[in-house]
Amino acid sequence: MKNKTSFTIDILLCITLISSLFYCLVTSFDIKTEWYIIVVPTAIFCTIYGLLASLVKKSGVLFISVAITMIVFVFTLLFSLESILEQLSYVITQALKLLSQYLPVQNKIILGDTLGTSATGLFVFISAILSAVFTISLIRYKRILIPSLLSMVLLVPCFILVNTLPSLVCLFIAIASLIALYISKNTRKFRPSQGGAIAAISFGTMLVVMTILLAFNPIEKYERFDWQENLLQSIENGFNIDDGRKTSTEKNLNEIKGSLEEKENLSDISPLTQTHTPVMTVTSAVGGNIYLKGTAYADYRDNIWSIISDSDAARYPQDFVPFTATIGNNALTDTRVHMLNESKIAYVPYFLESLPDNLNSVADVCVKNNTNKNEFNYSHYPFYAEGTYRYNSSSEAEDYKAFVYDTYLEIPRKTQIELRRIAEQEGFLDSELTVSEKIEMVKNYISISKTYSLKTPKMPSSKDFATWFLNESDTGYCVHFATAGTLMLRALGIPARYVTGYYATAYANQTVTVTTDNAHAWVEYYSDTAGWIPLECTPSSFQPARYVGSQRASGGSTDTTQPTTVEPTTAPTAPTNGTVSHNTNTKPKNDSKSSFEFNGFTIAMMSLGIVALALISIFSRRIIIIKKRKQRFETGRNNKRAICIYKELKNLTKISHLLITDEVKSVYEKARFSNHTISNDELKIIENAYYNSVEEIYNNLPRIKKPYYKFIKAIK
Q1: 453: how many CB neighbours lie within 10 A of its CB?
Q2: Are residues 367 and 355 in contact, defined by beta-carbon separation less than 8 angstroms?
Q3: Among residues 105, 85, 89, 86, which one has the least CA distance to residue 97?
Q4: What is the rounded CA–CA span in Å between residue 566 and residue 29?
Q5: Across the strands, what pairs with 280?
Q6: What predicted TM-score, i.e. pTM, was given to this entire model?
Q7: 597 burial type by CB count under 10 A (0-12 exposed, 13-18 middle, 19+ buried)
Q8: From 319's CA, which of 129, 422, 494, 599 has a CA 20 to 30 Å away?
Q9: pLDDT per position as a tens digit, 632-650
């Protein structure tokens, strides 16, 4: 390794390029993975193969070494071959789901027994192959053609769907890396020692240029160009494809946007003041607490709750209505909601028998009002009644279940780490706990962790809303409790979402007025058999402001069979006490594991890690020995250098029956015992003797012993 700086830069450039290419694919096709799954294995592989490419001189030996390490990795990975096939199925399906918007392709493929939900092992496997190709091409052969072509192959799929775009940050890094390689092309070929430095300077310069471009054209301002639309139109005309770029769900979602709050920025949450403004009137056949669902939020990022994106809406099962229950054992009840102002959104109670005419569900987001009507009659099952609601076993329900587990387990990495720490501390990760028990424990923990107060101060900047509330805040109101509860359930592998609407206390056959002070936020968690279940994490001390109409009987509710308390914890507890059947025997597809599992893939990665550490240690030791030996040979007076070289020559005699000539001995004795300084020519005699002996001994060694003396003894 003649130039360590150039070598290091090349390795870093390979790691950066491969990682950014992977992230372009991940962000384009919404593939679930974590950054360290890509970066860490890539760094290990690039380092190993880079050292091999730099230190192993013979090409045959190099390729044998690479093949051996690859075979070891593949062999260990075979223990989880089924998992790899599932992951491949997942990646292909993610691409086909998006591609099916434009071309009539099959949108699901299953290579394993089940359809996977992540691409961890697959990415690691591909990373090993790419790292070998990239590092050997750059470091050994100083060529960029193959890395450039492979990079283009990986980037092209990101732009097949011209209305999708990978993360611009990752894309810019990948492009900057490729341009840097191209600029340093000739330098690498004729001046290898300078190639890395020029590549590093070029890479930094391109990043600065692209950062400036990104500042003037932010990601959120990206819009498709006319040529992209024209290209899509040409494809449709050429293949006689109908306009299917947007599903009916997407179109409905876009129509409703502007009529609802698409985002809720928690960074702006501050103390509340009640205004007592009437919003609607509610008349129910039974008394008790009632949740009127408005908007469901899916994505939590940068302290902002957002509704599902167009890409998520495109994956939504078109004919499935999550706002209705398909099976009910108990008698239905009726609730009438009269909106006092025009609204494109209908606020609906839970577990509807069906949606009233002219109301359409918009994916999982809300129910859209297509008319000018402002009064609706709902027939539904009371959500606090036992065993009254569940889904039918249908293909649509299974497709929807897969959609839920793909969509409603997302959580920022840092937030997840902190919430998992809290979960471990509170015992939520106990493998013996059922899903229902975990939900109940989360509800109880969140609801008693803080004091309810509308005067909760605004969150400090640069904090995560959920972790700040749980770790630092003394108080909170519904937004705080609902956010913390939703994300904690997700951290435990239970699909959950943040819901806003209105909460009120109904009185049997009485009309109550719901005001802005009844606006509320709560948690919904997903039951495999019953769908979305409301969960109240706000403490029982919460007292919703309510205005009862003049028809209210002075003696209270006329229905003594239903609860009439106003505490929001009374109604939602029923779903968590075992009345709703959770399929605990069937593990969700991407259920978060609470304990470390020694499966085939884990063994493979541990084995690979051990091999990698061993190789790094061996190569590092060899480099240090050679460096120190060279330093002793080249520094100091000639006499001192001659003595050091002679000692190394004597050590070689232990390996082979080497005879030291009298001339060499004479020069050594003069350097060792004489007061005279030996000449450069005399020093050269000992140096030549040493290096010739090394070459002779190494060439005469059996092949099986050569690696030991080269890498362990470091004689050459």
Answers
A1: 17
A2: yes
A3: 105
A4: 46
A5: 339, 514
A6: 0.48
A7: exposed
A8: 494
A9: 888 888 899 988 888 888 8
